[in-house]
């Protein structure tokens, strides 16, 4: 078994991540574990970097909150990333948008990219495909057999003869 075949099997089968480009404003829902509880946290910002390395691919999202810039890098194939929604498409001329780090929140706004009718149709098809996959995953999770732990044997009640 070679490394390439091992890496191919590790890739996320039904990825809930649409095609991203730098400049897109995205809403990333990721699972966060705090103690013994798990919850979903949403991080919304601009994609400033895409890294395509097969299984090791990732994307970096930047947002400015209360005047402080925050960047998070999300692995594309991570089970912690539940879903990614594209809020708007940005019009940029660079592959890496590191220049946004030096700009204030207002000046770092990007123009919105207008989609051609063909691109718009592809976007709709991809959104429908993602919804179908999400529904199938929910259906499979609901149909999965639930294994419950066997109840502890209760001590036999003593009966008194009357």
Determine the fraction of residues in helical runs and give it as a percent range. 10-25%
Integer average pLDDT: 82
**N-to-C SSE series?**
HEEEEEH
Largest sheet: 5 strands, antiparallel
Structural class: alpha+beta
How does CATH name the architecture of the domain at 3-113?
Roll
Distance between the termini: 74 Å
Radius of gyration: 23 Å
The number of strands is 5
β-strand amount: 25-35%
The CATH topology of the domain at 3-113: SH3 type barrels
| Strand adjacency order, main sheet | 4-3-2-1-5
Number of helices: 2
Low-confidence stretches: none
Instruction: Give the CATH level 1 class of the domain at 3-113.
Output: Mainly Beta
- What global shape is seen? extended
Keyword list:
SH3 type barrels; 30% strand; 5 strands
Question: How would you explain this protein's 3D organization?
Answer:
The chain has a 5-stranded antiparallel beta sheet with strand order 4-3-2-1-5, with no helix packed on it. It has a domain at 3-113: SH3 type barrels (Roll). The protein has 2 helices and 5 strands, in the order H-E-E-E-E-E-H. A hairpin with a 6-residue loop joins strand 2 and strand 3 (58-65). The protein has 162 residues and is an alpha+beta fold.
């Amino acid at each position: 078994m070679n490394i390439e075949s091992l890496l191919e099997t590790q890739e996320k089968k039904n990825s809930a991540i649409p095609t991203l480009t730098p400049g897109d404003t995205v809403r990333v829902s990721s699972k966060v574990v705090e103690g013994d509880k798990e919850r979903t946290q949403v991080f919304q910002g601009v994609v400033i970097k895409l890294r395509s390395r097969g299984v090791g691919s990732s994307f970096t999202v930047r947002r400015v909150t209360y005047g402080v810039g925050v960047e998070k890098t999300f692995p594309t194939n991570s089970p912690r990333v539940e879903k990614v929604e594209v809020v708007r498409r940005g019009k940029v001329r660079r592959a890496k948008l590191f220049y946004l780090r030096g700009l204030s929140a207002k000046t770092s706004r990007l123009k919105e990219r207008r989609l051609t009718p063909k691109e718009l149709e592809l976007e709709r098809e991809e959104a429908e495909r993602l919804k179908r996959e999400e529904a199938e995953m929910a259906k499979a999770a609901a149909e999965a057999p639930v294994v419950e732990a066997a109840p502890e044997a209760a001590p036999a009640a003593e009966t008194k003869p009357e």
